[in-house]
Amino acid sequence: MKLKIVISRIIPYLLLILFTLPIIIGYVWILISTFSTRTYGLLPVDKDGKFGGFTLSNWSFLFEPEIWIVTFNTLILALGLTIGVVIVSMMAGYALSRIKFPGRKAFLSLTLILHAFPTVTLLIAIYFVLRWIALIPVLGRNIPIIGGFGYNTLGGVILVSIAIQLPLGIWLMKGFFDEVSWDMERAALIDGCSRFRTWWDVMLPQIKPGIAALSIFSFIQGWGSFIIPYTYMVNASRATVATYLNNLLSETAPTNYSMLASVGLFQLLPVLIFYIFTQKYLLSIFAGGVKGAA
Amino acid sequence: MRKWILIVIVGIVVIAVGVYFLVPRIKKVEVEGPREVKIVVRAKGTATEHWKADCFDEAAKVLNAELKSEGDNRTVVIEKMFDDPDWGDYVRSFVMAADAGIAPDIVLGGHEHIAVYSTAGYIMPLADSVSEIKGMYPEFDDVIEGLWDSCQLRGKIWAIPQDIEARPFYFNKPKLKELGWSDAEIKALPEKIRKGEYTLDDMIATAKEAIARGVVKPAHGYWHRPKRGNDFYQYYFAYGGIFYDPDQDKLVIVKDALEKWYAFQRRIVDEGITPENFIGTDWRIWHDTVSHGKALFWNGGSWQWGEWAKLYVKDEGGQDYLFKNVGYALQPPGVRGKSGGTLSHPTVYMVTTEKASGRGDKDLVVRLLARATTKELNTKHAVESTHIGILKSQADYAPYKEDRFLSDVIYMLDYNYFLPNHTMFSTWEDAVWEGMRASELGDRSPKDSAARAIKLLKSELGDDFIVK
Fold it and tell me: What is the DSSP letter of A200?
């Protein structure tokens, strides 16, 4: 009996270890590679193939201004995406959850369809929109930090990323608002609150875990974003960390995988740290529900 | 609350409309005195090809000194974009930027891009004739005469040559020796190919023998380029194919040559000298295999010699190792008696229009190009990346002459040919590539593939296309 209990407890762990091992090995390889001239499997080796060859030279990119430009851009993109998605999703999610208006169902269906569209199919159409936005004075190309909202600006990339991320955000927020009791809202309205105040003071505090989860999810999406900055920034290698990383890969020349691993780890670290501290909230996306549901 | 929302909305609309109509009418006041002219350069290449962009730093120094001495109040400032995306992404990025009016001032491209870019209005003509461009600056007069052909379209000169290359047929000398060839026979192979005495059929026979006798591993007798690219057209040319009829300004398929080319692609697989499903093999595997002497014959580019020396066999001795182990010749003909050949694909610098780049001062851009087209700068690029020089003066320029590989392969330019500058050439390429891929993979017979390619081209190109 005791043996059965032990086995039933051990087997899931063994299976989990077995399935996560390749991922763990991948991370270990990245870590080792960043401090080695080359690796043989997980073993750091020198140019003669013997154990050794430790170096810090793979981190030399940290002393180039380019990496800090792309890191700053990536941070702005991730923050802009997060703020944009959360604000619009909070408002749209509430309206779709609580207010009856013509076209509500159609809007919901269309949002879902947009979510199903692969980004790559929209690239050319979005390009024409961004090119048009770029012609608008000030808004198009003359905003500090983000450049503007037109083609070849960080703001344009943020705008497109928000649009592509919004369907998921709106549906998530709608799900969270659906879970909040009508009684609470009615009480607020009867007490004389306006719709806006009800939303702000009564409803939003109830879905804080959802807001936190969507913020984290959006930030991580923005941080790793590749295809949109790669397409809509002319100097793609100086756009974001992901495009900078891509620039280290050449079609024909051999790649310095140790350097690649270092930049990859540099990109990964903030996300890993962020994830460790916020995974509780992130999981509430999948669990759904209101405060405490996660 | 509603009142405030209304006021805010009306305010935003009024400001937006005002800005939209008023801002474009505010003219910038031209400032007298010193003025910086930003010239943006976009180029692509591997690490060994960095001079494609870096030459402009040196050229700008010369130009700025000239401007200063002339009392011109302008100073040139260079902004470079140099990376190595695949050609598709590179062209897409340029086209999108040009269409949005924010293209670089100078863009590097293949000469075949001239047709599309000029038709779209992205690049400007530099001169109305070869004599005119040669008269503009002494540097342009120094460009090898034949290269201007690749820069011409509709009677105008649209670009300045940047580099040129050959696509040699490489062979592994120790393996041929192991097969029983004498040193003299190995040394004579390039000359036999030049004279048309050693053909693609002979190459297949030699490779088969090497595999049968265990000199190389099966399917390591002949490795062509692993991915789509211009190199493949050399087989079409080897069997008598041509791309273009200049008299009629039409793209051409020579049916017999196309069928023979496709048959060759399948045959090298059937004979076991090239691996099955070879198309799509990673470039790094390809480079590693051929540079380390694991294949008997292969076809590559002259620029790859430099890549192998610096990036693949550096530890084994670089160029010394390559000279000891690797030989090079023209691409063998498919027909006995026909000279070997090589496809050259000059890369060129093009100057964008004011509309495409959003900037003026194009006189300075062209002058900067002239200052970058010098034997000193071009030789730095040629030697480091093993590309062939584009200037007549390089032939007597010591740093160029002293480069053994470049001196050895320069004769190949006497046997080279170019792709056509035709707006619809990419359609031609798409159709013949699909047929070639299907033939080599065995999806369709070579004859069937050729018939399909011709049918497709007839329907897509219509009057722009003829079959011979």
Answer: I
Which of B20, B23, B86 is closest, CB to CB, to A251?
A: B86
Tokens 């051990």 correspond to A10
Q: Does A79 touch chain B (CB under 8 A)?
A: no
Q: For domain B169-343+424-467, say whether CATH 3.40.190.10 is its number.
A: yes
Cβ pair B295, B41 in contact under 8 A: no
Domain of A39 in residue numbering reads as: 2-45
Same domain, A95 and A221: yes
Average pLDDT over residues B40-49: 90
The complex's ipTM works out to 0.79
Is it true that domain B37-164+345-417 has CATH number 3.40.190.10?
yes
In B195-282, which ranges are E strands?
222-223, 244-245, 250-253
CA distance B22 to chain A (A): 9
Residue type, A139: L
pLDDT value of residue A294: 35
CB contact (8 A) between residue B96 and residue A127: yes
Contacts of A137 in chain B (CB under 8 A): 19-20, 23-24
pTM of the model: 0.80
Q: Is the pLDDT of residue A220 over 60?
A: yes
Contacts of A137 (CB under 8 A, 6+ apart): B19, B20, B23, B24
**∠ Cα B82 B87 B92 (to 5°):** 90
Nearest CA-CA partner of A158 in A74, A54, A45, A50: A74
Q: Which CATH number belongs to the domain containing residue A206 in this structure?
A: 1.10.3720.10
B263-296 per-position pLDDT tens digit: 999 999 999 999 999 999 988 899 999 999 999 9
Q: Could you read off the pLDDT of B403-442 as tens digits, one per residue?
A: 999 888 888 888 988 888 888 898 999 999 999 999 999 9
Domain count, chain A: 2
User: Which residues in chain B are contacts of A131 at CB distance < 8 A?
Assistant: 99-100
